[in-house]
Amino acid sequence: MGSENEKCSCSSLGFKELVIGGVVGGAIGASIALLFAPKSGAEIRKDFSVKEFVDNGVGKVKQATTSLLNKDNEPYS
Fold first, then answer.
1. Residue range 52-72, pLDDT digits in tens
2. Three-state DSSP state, 56
3. Alpha-carbon span 34 to 28, nearest angstrom
4. Which domain holds residue 64?
5. pTM, 2 dp
6. What is the DSSP secondary-structure string of 3-33?
7. Could you identify which of 2, 19, 33, 34 might form a hypothetical disulfide with 6, taking C-beta atoms 3.0 to 4.6 angstroms apart as the criterion?
């Protein structure tokens, strides 16, 4: 097996690329979800305002970013 000092090869991705990938993936996922939603556009707009939708998305991205930053500062166990 490997030594204790070896690092995971997945750490080669930078934080910036990870955040960009998350935002792009989220936007694509949201678009697909809206296209295949069982409600019509008018019903969906009635349920959600655009501002509310954006605020929720921004909040989730901030939470994920904070979580990733906190994990980055934790010592390896």
1. 778 888 888 888 888 877 775
2. helix
3. 10
4. 14-73
5. 0.38
6. -TTPPPGGGGS-HHHHHHHHHHHHHHHHHHH
7. 2
Per residue in 8-34, pLDDT tens?
555 566 888 888 888 999 999 988 887
How many domains, in total, are found in the chain? 1
- Is 8 contained in some domain? no
The answer to the question of residue 4 being in a domain is no
Closest C-alpha to 68, from 24, 37, 23 = 23
Is there a contact between 64 and 22 (Cβ–Cβ < 8 Å)?
yes
- Tell me if 54 sits within 8 A of 46, measured CB to CB: no
**What's the start-to-end Cα distance of the chain, in Å?**
18
- Residues 60 and 52: their CA atoms lie apart, in Å, by 12
